[in-house]
Design brief:
The complex is a heterodimer.
Chain A lengths: L1 H12 L3 H23 L2 H17 L11 H21 L5 H6 L21 H10 L4 H11 L5 H8 L3 H19 L6 H4 L9
Helix pairs in contact in A: 1-2, 2-3, 2-4, 3-4, 4-8, 6-9, 7-9, 8-9
Chain B lengths: L6 H11 L13 H13 L1 H25 L6 H15 L10 H29 L2 H5 L30 E8 L3 H7 L8 E8 L4 E7 L4 E4 L3 E4 H10 L5 H13 L5 E6 H10 L3 E5 L3 E3 L12 E3 L2 E5 L1 H9 L10 H16 L5 H6 L1 H9 L2 E3 L3 H12 L6 E5 L5 E5 L5 E5 L1 H14 L2
Parallel strand pairs in B: 1-6, 3-12
Antiparallel strand pairs in B: 1-2, 2-3, 4-5, 6-11, 7-10, 8-9, 13-14
Helix pairs in contact in B: 2-3, 5-12, 5-14, 5-15, 8-9, 10-11, 10-14, 11-12
Classes of the chains: A mainly alpha, B alpha+beta.
């Protein structure tokens, strides 16, 4: 399996288009799905996926099999493309004229993340999904990359463009929000005021 | 009973114990600590319950995400076609540099400055032409107005709208602050950054070209000089001005008409940050700089705790300038980018925009000190409208580096870059094509 992938990578690096296509087709589902989880908009996810593959193929020589699996490398890339995409989207290139004509009342900022894939649900999962969508964006993405992308904290840090400790803090914070949302009755606020046991090295 | 377990430790404990963590050795839970966590769990039902909840949430989360995954529609053939097309397009353009993060931040700042300047100009125009002017005249008695003044209205109908045709703006960045330069006015102002912003709103084409300050250029009436010196030369010349000379010089070097120029000084960033009510940044590690210079030969210790911090203009500048590096990667360049992004985020936050608009005249005058430009108020508005019509995707970026210059040394030993006209022309043509 690994040998096959490495052979494909070698050939694609040398400019073999068939090999590139095979790499794309093999990894496309995982990459698109992760992008969709992070962006929750199919069109944006497709754009980010294409960005990620274009970047990956252009930088194939930089991929180091010693450091990570190819899938992981792609996941880190697509997560960072998603971040770029969101940053661009968050810059509201609004027309001042339109805004002023509208009487200085700009509409609500973000359209929210209304998932545009219609999901068929079973109880708990629906609850978890809805709760997840109420977690602030950065922590939500950290949770997704951790529990769906299976990224380690250093990889998470790279994908999110932050330090390893920030990456972990985002996962912890995401859990705290989820705990509050999913266990309304429990005394989960304890979690936010817990104490460190002993010294953290 | 010992103290409760912190969430971080609980998660580390869970991950160390479960297979999720296989790929990620958890470094912050030593065996000794692990024993103490376990000892605490034995005696604390509350923490046991938290661990159970955490375990359940982690499991449910993974299951939910994998259920969602199944429902995402796949279209691999279409994706590959788009990827292949884009890869093909990349190949024949070795001279257009790939995306450069730092350049983009400089660009962001430039665009930000002009959005704000234009916005302020727009409001200023409204204030002058609109009913707000009557309110601006000091009337000590707060008597109700005879006729209720209408709220700030829409744009004056006579407003010409977006200008036709391309516009090129040269942005010069100077490290000095406006006070020293205004007071002195003698030392040649060296500009550290030169950036050309070209926009053709009609054709939806734009690019940002970074020009090295060591580019050795022909300066009309001044022989040859480094690009960074041109502004200073113009300022010293009675018959010229810095901006005009820089604009003319760069225009002839690039073979591209440059209509406007602006000089942005570092302290305008401080003024901008203050005017927008400060910025919020996430400080990853506490900063302790006991030797931060106070500007008068002494020290003015700087101390900023970790976590999300709200910084005013002065503190933001100190944050950007301190030379301490508390953690790898958390250096000046990182902090400067962080600040620029934070300011950008704040200015473009729609919920803050109405407030920002209300104080735009103050913003305009705050910026005016650090911003020198040949743009009229109307030009600034036009430009702001142009900029807001473009997305970051429409903007191609490049640097005039080895691709179209040759390193050389002048007779006085200055290291310079000699422009190669043919290569520059090709680069500009490529840029015009690239920015769709």
């Amino acid at each position: 399996m690994d040998v096959l992938i490495h052979d494909l990578i070698k050939r694609a690096t040398a400019g073999d288009e068939t090999a590139a296509r095979e790499l794309h087709d093999t990894h496309y589902p995982a990459v698109l799905r992760l992008a969709y989880m992070l962006l929750q908009n199919l069109q944006d996810a497709e754009d980010a996926t294409q960005d990620a593959f274009v970047y990956a193929f252009a930088h194939l020589a930089h991929y180091d099999p010693q450091r990570s699996a190819f899938t992981t490398w792609l996941r880190v890339i697509v997560a960072s493309r998603c971040r770029d995409l969101q940053r661009r989207r968050r810059i509201p290139w609004l027309s001042l004229q339109e805004m002023l004509e509208a009487g200085l009342e700009p509409e609500d900022e973000t359209p929210g993340h209304q998932p545009d894939v219609v999901l068929e649900w079973v109880g708990v999962q629906q609850m978890v999904w809805e709760a997840l969508n109420q977690v602030p964006r950065k922590s939500r993405q950290a949770l997704i990359l951790r529990y769906f992308g299976d990224l380690s904290y250093p990889e998470l840090a790279q994908a999110l463009g932050c330090s390893v400790s920030t990456a972990k803090s985002r996962v912890v914070y995401g859990h705290q929000v989820l705990a509050r949302l999913l266990n309304p009755g429990a005394r989960v606020e304890l979690g936010t005021h817990g104490y460190h046991i002993g010294d953290v090295p | 009973m010992s103290k409760h377990i912190h969430d971080h430790q609980l998660l580390s404990y869970l991950e160390a114990a479960s297979s999720v963590a296989e790929a990620s050795p958890v470094a912050d839970l030593s065996p000794r600590l692990r024993q103490r966590v376990e000892a605490h769990l034995c005696v604390c039902p509350a923490c046991r319950a938290r661990l159970e909840r955490l375990t359940r949430t982690a499991t449910d989360l993974a299951a939910t995400l994998h259920a969602v995954e199944e429902q995402v529609p796949l279209a691999p053939a279409r994706s590959w076609a788009a990827v292949a097309r884009r890869l093909e397009r990349r190949r024949p353009r070795p001279d257009v540099l790939p995306f450069r993060p730092l350049l983009r931040h400089v660009a962001t700042l430039a665009i930000l400055v002009f959005i704000v300047a234009g916005l302020a100009g727009l409001i200023h125009t409204l204030a002058v032409t609109g009913p707000a002017l009557t309110r601006a005249t000091p009337t000590p008695t707060p008597t109700p107005p005879a006729s209720p003044s209408p709220p700030p209205g829409p744009l004056p109908r006579s407003y010409p709208g977006r200008p036709a045709g391309p516009v090129a703006l040269l942005v010069l960045g100077a490290d000095g602050d406006s006070r020293t330069s205004v007071a002195g006015g003698t030392a040649a102002d060296e500009t550290d950054a030169l950036l050309l912003l070209y926009m053709d709103a009609e054709a939806k084409r734009a690019f940002l070209l970074s020009i090295p300050r060591d580019l050795y250029v022909d300066v009309p009436g001044h022989g040859q000089a480094r690009a960074g010196q041109v502004y200073g030369l113009g300022e010293q010349d009675e018959a010229a001005n810095g901006l005009g000379l820089a604009r003319e010089t760069i225009s002839s070097t690039l073979g591209l008409p440059v209509q406007h120029a602006a000089l942005v000084r570092l302290d305008s960033f401080v003024a901008l940050v203050d005017a927008i009510g400060g910025v919020d940044v996430e400080v990853p590690q506490p900063i302790e700089d006991p030797t931060f210079p106070d500007g008068h030969g002494g020290t003015d210790p700087l101390s900023i705790p970790a976590g999300r911090q709200h910084l005013d203009g002065t503190l933001a500048l100190r944050y950007a300038r301190t030379r301490v590096v508390p953690a790898p990667g958390f250096d000046r360049a990182f902090r400067q980018r962080q600040l620029i992004l934070a300011a950008h985020e704040r200015v473009t936050r729609l919920d803050l925009l109405p407030g920002l608009i209300a104080q735009a005249p103050a913003l305009w005058s705050a910026m005016a000190g650090g911003l020198e430009t040949d743009l009229s108020l109307n030009d600034a508005i036009d430009l702001a409208l142009l900029v807001t019509g473009l997305t970051a995707d429409d903007v191609a970026t490049a640097t005039l580096d080895e691709c179209c210059t040759l390193p050389s040394t002048t007779s006085v030993g200055e290291r310079v870059l000699l422009p190669q006209p043919d290569e520059i022309e090709a680069l500009i043509e490529n840029l015009l094509e690239e920015g769709r």
